[in-house]
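Chains adopt folds. We examine one example:
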Amino acid sequence: MYKRWLTISTIAFILFSLIPVSILISKEARQELQVHNGVMDLAAWDPEQHSRIKLDGEWEFYWNELLPPSFFRHGASDSVSRMIMEVPSDWTESRINDKPLPAYGYATYRMVLSNVPDDMVFALKKTNIRFSSDIYINGEKLLSDGKPSQRSTDYTAGNIPQIGGFSTTGDDIEIIVHVANYDYINAGIPSSLYFGELNHMMKHQQQLTVREFSLIAILVTLAVIYAVCFIAAWLNGKKDYSLLLFSLICLLFSIYQGLVGERVLLLFGSSFSFEWIYKIKDISSMTYFIVLVVLFNQLQQNIISRRATKIAITVLGIFTLLIVLLPIQSYTLLQVYVIVFYEFLLLWMLVRAGALYVKSTANHRINSMLLFMGMLTINLYSLDLLLFAFSLKEELWLGQLYIVIFNIIMIFLVVLRFFTAYQEMKEMKNKLVKLDKIKDDFLINTSHELKTPLGAIVGITDSIIKRVEGPLNEQQVQNLTIVKNSGRRLTMLVNDLLDYSKMKNGDITLHKKKMNLRASVDAVIKLQMFVLGNKPVRLINSILEAFPDIYADPDRLLQILHNLIGNAMKYTDVGEVKISAEMHRNTVVIHVRDTGIGIAPGMERFVFQAYEQIESSSKYDRSGIGIGLSITKKLVELHGGRIRVESAIGEGSVFTFTLPQTGIDSVEWNTASKEHNDEAHESLNLQVQYPLYLEGEIKEPILVVEDDLANMQSIINALKLKGYSIVAVHNGHQALQELDKNQGFYLVILDIVMADMSGYEVLTKIRERYTLFELPVLMLTARNKAEDMRIAVDNGANDYVGKPFETEELLARVNNLTKMKAAVKHAKDAEIAFLRSQIKPHFLYNALNSIAELCIVEPSQAEDLVLHLSSYL
């Protein structure tokens, strides 16, 4: 452990030591040429050896003055107060009359370059002047950034690095800088101005621009790579949000880097004001710190806990919002405190990352070291930015290097995560293969052991029911029948397990023969009717009696039908399960169609996998072990057929499988089948036509939305007993159409499960137009569960009734809701009447005043007004 502490301490010391070294390098060995008392003598300047020089030193300084160049030419400078100001520095560090200069104000800087070489074209570069400036060379304006002014209302902020070229014929160059600041917490010329030969200055500027563009290009490329990796992982079913966070960090880094230093992103042009450019820089800075905290919380909660993450997100998020809403001069007053907060947070995370590495095991040591190195480089980058912001260094090359190192570390970390995940998956796969074999062996052995006692339970129970031991009362017979049926159900599960194991090992054998398909379906339906109980689902055998024989294993065909029909019944609350068949050449195509909940898109491929049970929003019967459909698929394929499913949420499912048939002409059969279908279609048309309008004694119409005819009739009968006016529809679309036509409904009774759209969808559309009091909604469903009640109320229902319902309960709830609607309507009408009663006296008072005035000056008009008023009243 001591060695690990020594390792990370050494690494941190080496990387931290680069910062003071970079400060010394940025000072460029403090040149001998300095400005003394407002003058720099260039007699000793060698342009070949020093292509550019800093104009550092003692500048003339005139506080609260924006003196034009002509002012100094006429010798009037003695009439104003002159100070000496160090450049670079903030003027807030100076004092007048023992008082520090305020940050907000304006001033003039002046210096003269003497003994300037002849026959050269020069350039002047400004980097950072807060917060607006104009630069004059020998009386001519060379650079302008923002608009300095003596009044804050006329002032415009601007602080973008600029370079300008000029030539001169004299020996001296006068440089005057107007500076004004009404935004930032300090002001002046905090960074050096550079002077040199134009070609050398432009070459150096191009190098800086290329370097910063290269860094931005690297960051954007990494952001795209991380985003592509996230999308690829997402498409393969694994949502690794850390990749998305890596991408976002790189993108935010690139934006921030493009708006500091040389601000190279502005070379592409910008329609934003400088204030918003500056705000975007600060917003990107705060945002990437937020994303960074979330990233390290996701990578390793031992570095920063969930609670600390929430605190950091709250503080930095609030400050980011303040940046958006407040002007620069307002939010920068808080910026120092926020900087202290996130610097302390980063340092704390660095210490936690170091402790994590020290305590890590050999398997996680590389990962912990990478996290520590990443946290260290971010701390160093943040510190380097602070030094640049406080003008303690003039270049960002070291911070940019730290960013590159950070991203290299993150790349290694991502690769290591994928490699570790691959190794874990490989080990898990091998382990699962072994466990799968153990599981199969266990299931086979257990199933064989269970078959004998189950057979005994079913046999003995059946014999007792048949009075082998004497007479039984009705309650005893009922209880024993439940035991027998449960034993048979368990026996079927055991047989499924044995069949599945046999099919996996290829040990199952089919004994095919001719058999009647309709009779087989009838047999299955009779057995499934016992399981169905009182569930409002119809089992329909639509296969014609004349349907030809098929060639299949009778037992296995019954097993296929039991599995498919039983699955359809499980996920169908109300409606029907219909079995039909048709001929296609030498193949019988059998459909098992239900009106159940359906299957979500993309989930169809999972339903035939072993031990899979598709989740649904409702708590349907999930008994069984999820191998029924898998066995069905294998049995169909053993017969030489194929099985598929077509489904949509809320529209039910259709399982279709094929089997071979024996000797029939397909054209002849299809003709007969078509005639039968036409007859069936005609019989269906004899149903009730919707919408159905029923007038009652109570003129408070109720809209009933129910797709089941029996339930619809039951509701209508109950409402007719009380004399309600009724509009009945059987689907959601018709309900919405009726609401469009009639605005006066007092109540909507709405079924949740319908064929075209769910009751929740209809309820949502109703609530988009009506409040809870404007149009009450009573939900009606067969699933009388607490979860369904909560969902209905959350979506805007006023009340809830479960099916099957008691007539008295339904009418009581209808009465309460219609009375609430009537009370709200009465209160609304009363309020409108009250407002009208308040308006009318004021109107009469004003009208009589006007008539009184006109009686004096225009009696004829007064008479007309009296007549009009009488007709109004």
The longest strand covers residues 105-114. Confidence is low (pLDDT under 50) at residues 615-625, 663-687. The CA atoms of residues 747 and 775 lie 6 Å apart. The chain has 20 helices and 28 strands.
